[in-house]
Chaperone protein HtpG
Amino acid sequence: MVQEKGTISIHTENIFPIIKKFLYSDHEIFLRELVSNAVDATQKIKRLSSLGQYNKELGDLTVDVSFDEKAKTITVSDKGIGMTADEIKKYINQIAFSGATEFMEKFKEAKDANEIIGRFGLGFYSAFMVADKVEIQTLSYQEGAEPARWVCDGSTEFEITEGNKTERGTDVILYINSENEEFLNKWKLQEILDKYCKFLPVPIKFGTKTEHEEDGVDEKGEKKWKDVEVDNIINTTNPIWTKQPSELTDEDYLKFYRELYPMSEEPLFWIHLNVDYPFHLTGVLYFPKIKNEFEIQKNKIKLFSRQVFITDEVKDIVPEFLMLLHGVIDSPDIPLNVSRSFLQADSNVKKIASYITRKVADKLNELFRKDRNAYEEKWKDIGLFVKYGMITEEKFYEKAKDFVLLVNTKSEHYTLEEYNAKVKDFQTGKNGTTVYLYTTDAEKQHSYVQAANKKEYDVLVMDAPLDNHFMQQLEMKLEKISFKRVDADVIDKLIEKDDAQKHDLTEDESKKLKEIFERAINNPTMKVEVESLSSESLPVTITMEEWMRRMKDMARMGGGGMGFYGSLPDSYKVAVNGNHKLVTKMLQSDEAHATQLAKQVFDLALLSQGMLKGADLTSFIERSVNVVTE
């Protein structure tokens, strides 16, 4: 018998387009909302029981999710507080809001368990994304309450009648529409439940599953097994981030990591987050082994609100450099359904980002201070992360400058302060700037590294994709230091001293030598200069000027505003050693022989840089064979 028919509050004519277009970007969210509401209702009855306001047996509080492919229904059942017909009218029918802004405000304020039913009403309407009709069967926990049934077909009209529930709680039955029949599938529903409900605090049952159970022993004394059907509980109700660190072992953290990322290598270490003021936040963040190729693996940090999965798109909550981390963050201060603009403007979100940055920096500093050797061993994996943080986050830079490490070609590790003390006296040029020499490939640039080592200069290894940006930042932050790649010029030019060496060539001889090489090279991108170098140095050295090479490297990495440099042709400096004995030989030879010698030593210089290829390499080999056999 129909007890009441009516029209939902006029404002709710706006609910459905808002839900479908703005609040929920993905239809699968409906299941998260309904299960989350069922869990809230269950936690409410547990709370009332603990406060002595509900004195009956709680019984089994498992939330049950089921579907009927024939009837085209999905049902979410709980044994929570339930609702009376009046509460249905209040919380389901009178949701009065005229747009998304007011909805956001309502959600922002729903932080307390007392507002659970109000939240139920809001999230409940996501059901109409996939259903032609929604039915509620409910029985309130209140003494003398009668069961109630509510039905609505997605319009503003509803019907309330007497219900058929005989036990406390609520069943929400969705009659799935033809466009969304994909959800009437066991594996699809299991996938959604695994994604959103895996760590909810109340057991969630979804059908049954087969498990192997020991069944005695056979006549040979070997164990027998049998298949048994058990409830398919899809969630862990007490994940590790809800516990105190003192309750957990290293194995607990590693086991949880394997559960989250079954295909990943084990993490280096982790941070347990737990703060109550000025916002609520728990979680565990793991430092993964980061490969040297620069790939930010997004969607690795999972964001929860009261153990309900929200998203793994956390870029507006977590500082960009922390996107390299893996793990879980849970904060009830972040509502379930929010826009990007809300997240970017919300003060709690900003505080959370700042707090996490500080905690990560403190953890790294603690590891560095406590066991420097172990920290240095991990540096290859975490160096990229630390440098990225320093480049993108000023507050992190201020802390990290004390534990970021520079590594030289001898695999020695130095802090910024230690390294400056090491090289300041030897590698400061006549202009007062200390030069930090570096290589991006110690094998390929071996001859240049050796030239630096002969002068007792130290050479850093800077072979990570971010190092160009990192060096540029240090040049801006640190006083009077400059980074120069060992092959950016001849060594005496990289660090110019007052006692610079001079060559004995006359101006005419220098000019003639330059013309010999220009004729032999015949390439406008190669600029020939006669230099005063040690007689033991190579006869010819090819270099690319540091600033230009660095800009081109950044352009290759896709650095903002660097595209112009990437489009410029490569240009090199060809430094001819005016003090090498071969120079005297060239100046005394006829033009053809001098040109041949110049071509040969130039090709040798190209070869040392890995720049001699194709026909030029073939020609060089043939020429070299002729020289040997003549």
Remarks:
- The chain has a mean pLDDT of 81.
- The CA atoms of residues 302 and 328 lie 5 Å apart.
